C-alpha cells in the first residue's frame, strides 16, 4: 500500500523497526535507503498511473494510481484539473519520505 495518506506512518514504523534491529550504522543506513527507495519507486509508479499497479489502486476504490496516491481512494480527484503546482506539491511530499523514516528511527532511539 502506498499513498500520501498511508506512506508517512508506514515510513515512521519502518524507521522504528530498522532502529530496533540494533544494526551497525552503515547497515541501518543502507536498509533505510533501500526502504525509502522502494516506497518512492512504487509511489512514483502509482502517481504515474503505471498500468501494472492497477490491482493496488483498484482495491481501494480509486480510479487511478494518482487518485490513490493523493487520497488513498477516499475521495475523487479530477486529474484533468490538476495544474503544475499540484504536481510540485506532490513532489515535495515524495521529498519528505526520508524525513519520515528518520523520524521513526529517532523515536525508537529516544523512546
Give the helices and strands, then pairings:
Elements: H1 7-20, H2 25-47, H3 54-59, H4 65-71, H5 84-95, H6 97-110
Helix pairs in contact: 1-2, 1-6, 2-4, 2-6
Characterise the protein shown here.
It is a single chain. With 111 residues, the protein is mainly α. It has one domain (7-110). The protein is 68% helix and 0% strand. The chain has helices at residues 7-20, 25-47, 54-59, 65-71, 84-95, 97-110. Helix 1 (7-20) crosses helix 6, helix 2 crosses helix 4 (65-71) and helix 2 (25-47) packs antiparallel against helix 6. The longest helix has 23 residues, at 25-47. The model has no long low-confidence stretch (mean pLDDT 89).
Describe the structure concisely for a colleague.
The protein has 111 residues and is an all-alpha fold. Helix content is 68%, strand content 0%.
**What is the overall number of helices?**
6
Q: Quick check: average pLDDT?
A: 89
Largest sheet: none
**Helical residue percent?**
55-70%
Alpha-carbon distance between the termini?
A: 27 Å
Number of domains: 1
Number of strands: 0
Beta-strand portion reads under 5%
Q: Give the SSE order as H and E letters.
A: HHHHHH
Poorly predicted ranges: none
Protein traits:
0% strand, 68% helix, 111 residues, 6 helices, mainly alpha, single chain
